[in-house]
Specification:
It is built from five helices and ten strands. With 206 residues, the protein is α+β, with helices and mostly antiparallel strands. It has one domain: Bira Bifunctional Protein, Domain 2 (BirA Bifunctional Protein, domain 2, 2-Layer Sandwich). It is globular and about 45 Å long.
């Protein structure tokens, strides 16, 4: 099944990205466009999902955008890889749980290539890593389904500024529970975009 793949070089504004995905969703519903994978970084932004609570904001001076994805409040910015998609669940004959499993497997398999062990947690959705410093979150997942078409996606921390998380309880967690790949293991992650795309395409079709 053909999927258009986009990779943005410059950081993308959050609201613009959401509008583009919602436009694509309608086009897919009307059978006028292909499904989409879109890899990008966002300009600095805090976003609050449908399960967000006001008490999760520590610094009350921050601005944030309320969004329709699942999940709580989080931060996006430079050094974080955002993997968006617009996927027709009905056409692919999969449900939301199967899609989440596909995302989890994509991240775990990709990070395994980089010799980083990670795992999924059904109670605390996302991808986690364990070390002598405890269990920490490396990737967040947030999805919205409309007309049996899923969009939004996941965010993987590579080299982002973790101090930005101090102003919130990211995904309802203590900010110290968040990490990035450079902290776990310093190595070259330049090809990780393509690895994630390849794994996602394999997993979504199996």
């Amino acid at each position: 099944m053909n999927i258009e793949i986009k990779k943005s070089i410059k950081p993308v504004k959050y609201k613009f990205a959401i509008k583009q995905m919602e436009k694509r969703l309608e086009e897919i519903f009307r059978k006028k466009s292909k499904e989409l994978i879109w890899i990008l970084e966002h300009q600095d932004v805090y976003t609050a999902g449908t399960n967000f609570k006001e008490k999760e904001i520590i610094d009350k001076s921050i601005n944030f955008i309320k969004t329709n994805r699942g999940g709580k409040i989080t931060y996006h910015g430079r050094g974080q890889l955002v993997f968006y998609f617009v996927i027709d669940l009905k056409k692919r004959k999969i449900n939301i749980r199967q899609l989440i499993s596909t995302i989890e497997k994509t991240l775990i398999d990709t990070l395994s290539y980089y010799k980083i062990k990670t795992f999924a947690d059904r109670k605390n959705i996302g991808i986690w890593t364990k070390s002598n410093k405890g269990v920490k979150k490396i990737a967040a997942i947030g999805i919205k389904v409309k007309k049996w078409i899923a969009y939004h996606g996941f965010a993987l921390n590579i080299s982002n500024d973790l101090k930005k998380y101090y102003k919130i309880n990211p995904c309802g967690l203590d900010s110290k529970k968040i990490t990035n790949l450079n902290i776990i293991k310093k190595q070259n992650y330049k090809k990780i975009k393509n690895k994630l795309i390849d794994q996602f395409l394999i997993n979504i079709q199996n």
